[in-house]
Amino acid sequence: MTGDLSPDTSVAVRLARLNLPRTGELRRRLLVDSALCGAVLIDLMFAGRADVEQGHLYAAGDPTGFGPADDVLAEIKAAPVRSVSWWLSSGAPGEREIADYLVAEGLWEQQAPASRRSPGRYRDLADPRGDAAEAERNNPRQVLVAADPGPPSAALACIVAALGLGTPARRPPDSAIARCGYGEPMVRAVVDYLASARDTFAHRSERPLQGPVSRALTATRVWLEDRRYRWGD
Question: What spatial distance separates the first Cα and last Cα of the chain, rounded to whole Å?
Answer without folding.
Answer: 35
